[in-house]
Amino acid sequence: MFKRSIKFFGLRISLIVLVLILFAIAIILGLMLGYGGLGGKNPVSIFKPSVWHDFFSKLNAK
Q1: Each residue of 12-22: pLDDT tens digit?
Q2: Which residue, 7, 8, 24, 32, shows the most beta carbons closer than 10 Å to its own?
Q3: Largest alpha-carbon pair distance within the chain?
Q4: Reduced to 3 states, what is the DSSP secondary structure of residue 4?
């Protein structure tokens, strides 16, 4: 019984980790596609802090 419960929890944890990894990949690809494909800029530059600073300053403009 103990081995069965360990196997069950191991499978569940593996599934949760897989979903989190796929979610992170989807977020990263979505950011790159949105900034590069739709925005017409370099997709890799979405990871620069200056881009995020500019985004949040526009978002919080009063």
Answers
A1: 999 999 999 99
A2: 32
A3: 61
A4: helix
